[in-house]
Amino acid sequence: MNEATQAFNSGFEFVIHLGEELNSGNLEIPAFPDVAMRIKNALADPEVSAEHVARVVGSDPIFTARLLKVANSAMVNGAGVKINDIRMAITRMGFKMAYNTAVAIAVDQLLHSSSVEELRPYLEDLWHHSMQAGALSYVIARKLTKIKPDEAMLAGLLHDIGKYYILTRSQQYTVLFNEPGMLEDIMNKWHTSVGRKILESWDFNEDVCKAADEHETLGRTHFGPPNLTDIVLVANLFAKNDDPYRVPDLDWEAIPTLRHLELTNEVATEILDESKEKIQSIIQALGA
Length: 288
Fold this sequence. Notes:
Elements: H1 3-24, H2 34-43, H3 50-58, H4 61-71, H5 86-93, H6 95-111, H7 120-144, H8 149-158, H9 161-169, H10 180-201, H11 206-214, H12 228-239, H13 256-260, H14 265-286
């Protein structure tokens, strides 16, 4: 049996197993890192204090260091005054940005937890794309909608989490790494449904789960104002571009979401030009 045939058979077997796991609800979903979940739960309390959140964050040195890095980044600390205290960092950032940063750190840790070397380039590309989509979601929400930019950034960061699951499960079918096109096809077909299941299991709200589920559905339509899925769909399209600061070549009339956002090539170009530094600062702050 030649290598191409082996890869095809492995790919077929993998898809069968993936479908069975999804239909049965028995996905082997990774646990969301404990400190991020504790931050999430703490911030769910409207009466929570910055001191309490700081104590939760301070229990993990990695989260502490990364949150301080964000607090001292150009995205948050335009004045450039050095912040060394985690409580002050959280106060400066705001609870929502602190939470988004905690989620970003948690996802980054998940994506880099695998010891399988063949996965490394896929996971690095996935995280870079996720950060770009998160940053683009932030500026699109701020420029074109009434949706909170921080919420949009969170949805953008998490929109491709289903690909992480597929990549880690594919470790059992290593021959697929010799046929990257086949692995990519499997991810493209399955990652949205898998992503919704993962985010539901992590107790993210319906809007974030729906954005993960529908961000590849270019023909989707709906009534009412633009929603989170509209933002993430566009951010994902832009982040797929070789140059995320250049407007991709799109059929602007054929994608209902673009019309719903009243987004044209000219408007998109203006937004990217005006927001380049903001996008870069978000990516720099969230990166390792």
